[in-house]
Amino acid sequence: MTDNVRLVKLLQEQKRRLGSVRKLAERLGVSEKTANDWLKLKDDEEDRRLRPDNKDRILKLALDLDIEPERFAFGPALWDCKASWEENLSLSLPAHPRSLRPFVDHAIEFLGHRISSPIGVWGSSFTANAARVKFFALSGADVLTYKAVGSQSVRAIWPPNVYAVSQDQPALSSPLRGVPEIEVIATAEPHGTNNGVVASFGYPSTGPEYWQADFRVAQQSLRPGQLLILSVRGTCCPKVQARERLHDWANVCELAAEAGARIIELDLAKAIEELADVAGKVGLAVSICKIARKAAPDAKILVNFGYAEGELLSALACQTAGQRLCDGFTISTIPVRLYHEAPYGREILFNGETRCLTGPVIVGLQLQCVAALKRVRERENLPRFAIVAAGSISTEQEFTAALYNGADVVQVASACYFDSYVPFKLRKYYDSQARESCKAMEGERDVALINFTKAVRRIELDLDSKLTLQGRERLLAIAQEEMLQWLRRVDTVSSLGPMRPKSAPTVEDCVATIQVRFIQR
User: Fold this and answer.
1) Which one of 8, 180, 199, 453 counts the least CB within 10 Å of its CB?
2) pTM here?
């Protein structure tokens, strides 16, 4: 049970729950000095300095305090970077992390569906079949994307396929100038340090008759409040004429609708990347969105364009979402060129062809893109337009930042190469925020109600004899409307859930708001 559990981190959480080192020592049955010494241990000292019986004490206390040890463990590897795509997908998966208390249902609306949380796993090798979807669904991920499929069977590239970004590689910054060159090392190792991942599998897909059946099986493994998106990709073969490419997009969207997909993600990242000018990129996106709407009229349409900024981002949003051709965007990967520092010098990989990068090294760019899309959503009055931050998020801080910047759903992917428990940990973090903020939120609502009431009374006293009976009724109606508007604004960004801003308006704020409307009338 102690395998991969970071016991010092677990001890720190136990101390936080209990309030002091003294109480922690008492519950563990050790001296305060011993507890202090344990809290100062480094990760690589745990095995040497903690006897098996002491490890058992710490784990037993975690269960007594209702703390899941898996929150402080590295999950088992779900991908063998030395094995082929087919070999990996045929492997039996380990047990999912256990949850001592049920996951909290946050009842969030996303593209017309009710989901229990905004946490998910993006379409990748980790969601390439029903068994993998089920693993993460049981781990607390509620919005999962089945890896992109096509209209024909395509085999994956032979390994190595997964390259870890060098720790010396600095984070990319905006604006991007050309295609970035990224230093990578041979493979991503489980429990290693995650600075980013480049996965190079090609565009593998089983035949439609298989993936349609497997997608239906994956849907059956979901619980209420969970959602499975189906990602599709038309052919990108340069030898195929444009008209035939569009026909293939229509075909694969029809197949997705037949499989029962309620939300279809159009994986346009590679198709858009291949075009040089903004007009061509936007025109292609518009054409494919129109085809998808016609082929799957009952499904919601998400567009995964990878990454965009500036003029391209604005044009994509206005010409697709603004024209109601799609229902949301997925922000995911950035195309890069790879090199490796070999003993004989720099080695360019894949003959300079681009590959898709995810991970911490591009999180900053992804958050900027999310914030820019949020501004477009507000400017174009598209309140139901969905924004999905996919692939790169791995920490609680990044997850929180993505929600605050405007993401409705956050899906992890690259982090799972290093720790398959990341979705579980994010879900437990999100749930803990709900429990800690529930009472505070109700308190803020009560304060707002009281302050609006005080504001009405203050205005009545100020106006005194000038206020008629009809005026008093109008004043009260305005106050009630403004109170409802405040409550709605609090609930607008539903994905923030327990982390949405809670500050109630002051009496002065309420007076000013009501007076403006009262005078206007």
Assistant:
1) 453
2) 0.82
